[in-house]
Amino acid sequence: MMTIESILEILRDVIDPDSGKNVVRRGWIRDLKVEGHTVSFTILLQDPTVPFASKVRGVCEQALKSAFPEADLRIEQDSPMIGLGNGLTIDGQSQKKGPGEGVTNIIAVASGKGGVGKSTVSSNLAVALASQGYAVGLADVDIYGPSIPTMFGLQEAKPSVNAERRIIPLEKFGVKLLSMGFLVDPEKAVIWRGPMVTSAVQQFLGDTEWGELDFLILDLPPGTGDIQLTIVQTVPLSGAVIVSTPQRVALADARKGVGMFDQVEVPVLGVVENMAYFTPPELPENKYYLFGQGGARALAEELDVHFLGEVPLIEAIRTNADDGTPIVTDPSEAASGIFDHIATDLVNQVEQRNALRPATQKIEIS
Ligand SMILES: Nc1ncnc2c1ncn2[C@@H]1O[C@H](COP(=O)(O)OP(=O)(O)OP(=O)(O)O)[C@@H](O)[C@H]1O
Ligand SMILES: [Mg+2]
Fold first, then answer.
1. Is 114 in the pocket of ligand 1 (CB under 6 A)?
2. Of 317 and 280, which is predicted with more confidence?
3. Exposed, middle or buried: residue 339 (CB in 10 Å: 0-12, 13-18, 19+)?
4. What is the pLDDT of residue 189?
5. CA angle, 256 as apex, 108 and 104 as ends, to 5°?
6. Taking the CB of residue 320, how many other CB atoms lie within 10 A of it?
7. 349 to each of 22, 51, 81, 299, 344, how far by Cα in Å?
8. Is 252 helix (H, G, I), strand (E, B) or coil?
């Protein structure tokens, strides 16, 4: 059967020899539509001068034809560089290298309510993605309560600045890390007003030498106020992940979170239910639903957003976070596999969203 997912599955076998990555992962497939026997999409090449440019369409065609002989293929090829007046010249070279140029996907991790586990989920997903071979960055934009420095054991670390006065992110467990906490004293930031925070965040993301990244995860501050709204409006997000506990109060706020992203037309990639149940280490088969059962899953269903999975309340998740080693760094922990699974699902969601997106958008932080 021809579906969006089955078409993407075939295209994942088409590898760009330059980067070694498949064309779906490269974000080259856009505007994908399957209507009856007709499959249409645009191959969007950021750089039309790559050697593979002249072949990619034929290779995609061949792969799809042999999997689905009945398919009526309508493949176009395009490049955002030509004639878009976005500061880029016709030969595909940018006049001025925009900040964040090499970042394929920016994903915000948000919640309505505080303390539900955004930072825990962000850091574990970042490390899980890195261990799956993706190039990953994690930016903690919670200026009032940064927790990434603690969760990665980098409380004392200070990022350096290169000759072009751009910030070099720190690196741990294969993740490029930056926290507002490295740059601003949270106690002083408390008196900052909204516009100061958002311009600091933009500068912080734009002035950082992220290099080539598949994913940049943004750990947002809790809530759905002006600060969050401005951040999600000014950073070109691929999508958002909403974290909630199963508690009614948290769910009400999670609903607001989904509403906020809808308002700015950022796709919600999924909901993670954190602290879904408690499992004591000595009774790993037992599940105690302290905050109620399945609330976030039900909310996701009701709002028609994808449910990414449940993360149990486990003491080791907290102790590992406090010790600066996210739990996914220890594959013997059951929770490690859970985050790994969520990370895989998240990649699928992102790739699907990207493939459905119109071909005219371009991700650029500025
Ligand atoms: N599944 C879990 N099991 C055990 N402890 C957890 C779990 N998730 C989070 N915690 C702990 O709960 C506390 C709050 O988590 P975290 O800092 O990730 O929340 P947050 O949503 O980022 O908070 P804030 O809104 O303040 O940014 C931390 O001490 C963390 O270690
Ligand atoms: Mg946090």
1. yes
2. 317
3. buried
4. 67
5. 15
6. 23
7. 16, 29, 26, 18, 9
8. helix
Rounded to the nearest integer, the mean pLDDT of the chain is: 87
* Prediction pTM value: 0.88
**In the numeric block, which tokens belong to residue 278?**
């408690």
Tokens of 16: 């760009």
Rounded to 5°, the CA angle 269-23-353 comes to 20
Q: Whose CA is nearest to atom 18 of ligand 1?
A: 117
Is 284 within 8 Å of 315 (Cβ atoms)? no
Q: Distance between CA 335 and CA 340 in Å, rounded?
A: 9
The answer to whether the CB of 222 is under 6 A from ligand 1 is yes
**Span from the CA of 65 to the centroid of ligand 2 (angstroms):** 47
For the stretch 216-266, pLDDT in tens is 999 998 988 887 888 888 888 999 999 999 988 889 899 999 999 999 889
The CATH homologous superfamily for domain 4-78 is: Fe-S cluster assembly (FSCA) (3.30.300.130)
116 Cβ closer than 6 Å to some ligand 1 atom: yes
In this structure, which topology does domain 103-351 adopt according to CATH? Answer: Rossmann fold (3.40.50)
H helical segments located in the chain: 4-11, 56-67, 118-131, 148-151, 180-183, 186-189, 194-206, 226-234, 248-263, 295-303, 315-323, 334-356
Q: What DSSP state is assigned to residue 94?
A: B
Measured from the CB, is residue 318 less than 6 Å from ligand 1?
Answer: yes
**Predicted confidence (pLDDT) per residue in 319-348, tens digit:** 999 999 999 999 999 899 999 999 999 999
Where do the domains of the chain lie?
Answer: 4-78, 103-351
What is the rounded end-to-end Cα distance, in angstroms, of the chain? Answer: 42
CA of 361 to the centre of ligand 1 (A): 34
- For ligand 1, is residue 267 a contact (CB within 6 Å)? no
Instruction: Check the CA dihedral 295-299-300-301 and report its sign.
Output: positive
- Strands 15-16 and 21-22: what pairing? antiparallel
Looking at the chain, the whole-number percentage of residues with pLDDT higher than 90 is 60
The token pair that represents 39 in the structure block: 């499959």
C-beta separation of 292 from 248 below 8 A: yes
For ligand 1, atom 23, the nearest C-alpha belongs to: 115
248 lines ligand 1 (CB under 6 A): no
